[in-house]
Amino acid sequence: MTESLTPTVDPTAAPEDAAVEPRVLTPHTVLGRVIMLVNPAAGGVGSGAVGEAEAILADYACDASVVSLESGAFDSQVQAALDARPDVLFVLAGDGTAGTIASRAGPDGPLIAPLPGGTMNMLPKALYGTADWKAALRLALEEGAPQCVAGGEVSDGRTTQAFYCAAILGSPALWAPAREAVRDGQMRLAWMYARRALRRAFSGRLRYSLDGKVARRAEALVLISPMISRAMDENTGLEAAAMNPSDAAQAFRLAAHAVFSDWRQDPAVTTRAIQRATVRARSRIPAVIDGEPILLSHEARVKFIRKAFQALAPNPPAAEDSV
């Protein structure tokens, strides 16, 4: 006699076609309308990011749309997204693109959530504490709250660029890529960057003035926003750190600190809080502004912006890249 086998049924299991409950959105603000701008060409994004973003956003009870940025229509696509006045505008793109969109939104625009899609990702790491854009997206959706982000603005008469983490002016700016490579465990790349920086660093000094005071000389001036400064707790100004190695040995030690440790503890570095700064040099000034390398004119001005834009981030921001 053959016994028929009856499948075991778990009475507590949900039917396969049962609707999946949406994940819970943050209780700290209303996220009814969500727009996400994606640049697939950015270094940390990839061609499949649009579909992956759509799949993640589908888990939440919000009206969401994902826009793939195109090189010929970048400005119009960004402006259309800002004009739509969503509750939050996510940006998955390079460091420069994220900063540009945050600057265009300003303090009165929609909440901005810059996700890590670039090379250094200074701003996303400071806000979300991760270089994984998918984790940052879910963190913002589920735990985000409106955060007023302070920053600064660098202008050299030809171009004006905002920053929300840090601006390094002077030849030690060349050490930034080496330090980031060390953080990522890419030691061969770090050594290549370090050798390049050693060849070019400390070849020209800056003259700088802080808040209109007497001009001084330094190898570099680092301006750090309150969001990532370990030395400042409130949005009262930029932390200005002047780097002044007096000889080759100090220069080498400072370079090592810039790559491997907390450079602020080096005796060749002095810091203070400021509202504005002027920097001059005999030749063009190398700089890194929120992770983006740039060559400024021989004179540049920097000012503190107390309310630069509104971010959607956990409270308080993660500030992984505090310096």
Give an overview of the whole structure.
This protein is α+β, with helices and mostly antiparallel strands and 323 residues long. The chain folds into 2 domains: 33-143, Rossmann fold; 154-307, Sandwich (Tumour Suppressor Smad4), CATH 2.60.200.40. The chain contains 8 helices and 16 strands. It has helices at residues 49-57, 74-83, 95-105, 122-128, 133-143, 176-183, 187-200, 248-260; strands at 33-38, 63-68, 88-93, 111-116, 145-155, 160-163, 166-170, 206-210, 216-218, 220-224, 238-243, 269-274, 276-280, 285-289, 292-296, 299-313. It has a 6-stranded antiparallel β-sheet with strand order 6-5-16-13-8-9. Helix 1 (49-57) links the parallel strand 1 (33-38) and strand 2. Helix 6 runs antiparallel to helix 7 (187-200). The longest helix has 14 residues, at 187-200. It starts with 32 loop residues before the first strand and ends in a 10-residue tail after the last strand.
Keywords:
single chain, 323 residues, Rossmann fold, 2 domains, six-stranded antiparallel sheet, 26% helix
**Helix count, per DSSP?**
8
Number of domains: 2
CATH class of the largest domain: Mainly Beta
Order of helices and strands: EHEHEHEHHEEEHHEEEEHEEEEE
Strand content: 25-35%
Radius of gyration: 23 Å
Helical proportion, percent range: 25-40%
* Strand arrangement across the biggest beta sheet: 6-5-16-13-8-9
Structural class: alpha+beta
Pick out the low-confidence regions: 1-5, 246-261
Q: Major β-sheet, in short?
A: 6 strands, antiparallel
According to DSSP, the number of beta strands is: 16
Mean pLDDT: 82
In CATH terms, what is the fold-level topology of the largest domain?
Tumour Suppressor Smad4
**Molecular shape:** globular
| CATH architecture group name of the largest domain | Sandwich
Task: Identify the quaternary structure here.
Answer: single chain
N-to-C CA distance = 78 Å
